[in-house]
Amino acid sequence: MANNDNGNGLTMFLFGAVAGAVAGLLLAPRPGSETREQLVEWLKERRDQGESLLTKIKELKERIPAKGQIAAALKAGKDAYYEAGQAKEDTADV
Fold first, then answer.
1. Each residue's pLDDT expressed in tens, for the chain with a length of 94 residues
2. What is the rounded CA–CA span in Å between residue 9 and residue 68?
3. CA separation for the pair 53, 16 (Å, rounded)
């Protein structure tokens, strides 16, 4: 099957884009300057929220012990458990 479009699709696309732009300009609820101001304010709020979240994450990261500390605590717990088991066996022999 041959495509007999002859550029008609591109023409329709461009016509739709122009019609959409015109409709957007005519039906906009507020002037462009107000929309830009509102967008800038919204972006500033999001940036502030992002900075706040990043600060909280950094604070939480500082509270989390390092991998080596966790490994040492686990080893100490295992050793204590083993020693408690040995002590229990020693008292059972008496």
1. 455 666 788 899 999 999 998 888 778 888 878 888 988 999 999 999 999 999 998 888 888 777 778 888 899 999 998 888 887 666 665 5
2. 64
3. 42
| pTM, two decimal places | 0.41
Residues in the chain: 94
What is the C-alpha to C-alpha distance for residues 73 and 7, in angstroms, rounded to an integer?
72
Contact predicate 33/26, CB 8 Å: no
Distance CA(18)–CA(11), nearest Å, equals 11
